[in-house]
Amino acid sequence: MSTPHVLLGLLAAGSRHGYELKRAHDERLPRARPLAFGQVYATLGRLERDGLVAAAGQDRAAGPDRTAYALTGEGRATLDQWLSTVEPPMPYVASTLFTKVVVALLVADVDRARTYLIAQRAAHTARLRELTTVKADPAATLSDVVAADFAIAHLDADLRWLHATLDRVADWHREVHP
Amino acid sequence: MTQLQARGVVRAYGPTPALRGVTLDVTEGEIVAVTGPSGCGKSTLLHCLAGILRPDAGEVSWRGHRIDHLSEAARSRLRRTEFGVLFQFGQLVAELTAAENVALPLLLAGTGRREARTAALTWLERFGVAELADLRPGEMSGGQQQRCATARALVTEPRVLFADEPTGALDTLTGEQVLTQLVRLAREQRTAVVLVTHEPRIAAYADREIVLRDGLVDHTGLGLDVPLAGGSR
User: Fold this and answer.
1) Chain A to chain B, count of Cβ pairs less than 8 Å apart?
2) pLDDT score, position B102
3) Where does B57-166 show beta strands of DSSP type E?
4) Quick check: A156 and B201 CB within 8 A?
């Protein structure tokens, strides 16, 4: 995930200080990799250094110094540029899951590879069910649903791949170890 | 408590075996997904459990009584009262309105016309399609038709609903909405569901999953007929 761009996006609606940015991040990107406060401030520091955000006043009322930041013209241009660029759709066939199966096949026999695929399939299924429960909860916000949906669609695709690969693993092993 | 029980169910189509000895228990109110690749026997299993097909060997019992030996008429009666059946598409009677379609199982079971219509309207309302009551299937979208078909399958408040790829003909979002409603309403009235699907994301709505392969429960599959972490009950 591109934390700098997310922070620029969260600042597009108006200036905010680090604490508010962290809160808005967690609300809009539920179940994302946790974003530490330190990372928010470090990223803001780099964005300020690069002229993409600027300090816009301080709020001392709540105790420690809290600097609010605002998007600069350059920051908005950078954000627009990022949003108008399409992400390359899977430019490389690369994921730890895929790589691990390949390596298992290289170093172990077909049963070991199959055992790994079955264990991974069980783990994927458990996670799929967990997220389905999250999504079906009547209290889920649309942000929760959309985030869960994204993960569910990918887990579903991985599971189909795992099923198909289990069917092919013996032939594949013969190809790798002729 | 186990309500529906299959023991060593075998079924072939001519020389082609479809089920080669499947054993399965369904307890009251639970949702069981039956999954597996095309041709693994999952639809045949559903048909045997619902009394639509008679197994060649093995037993199917409902609340402790064998149903595989019952006459066609007795099995039909069971499907009108205790069981509900839902398929992928093409189940609504084209000449009848949505309300008439949903009321049909009640009328066949001897419920009065007015009472049946009232129940049908209530079920259409539960599926959010009350406004379709007087439309015929040809005037509805696929998603609307499937909501009506699901309402019709649940209108008799069956103890088990047999659903064969119930969202298979719908787009992802519509399918999900229909399934969410189906699961919620089934849980509310403690109707068990046997849900046949080849889609992992659909199976994830169930309490547990049975994987079939070549007519047998696949013990290398994730299912192993055990509950999975993160189940909703």
Assistant:
1) 50
2) 97
3) 57-62, 65-66, 83-86, 160-164
4) yes
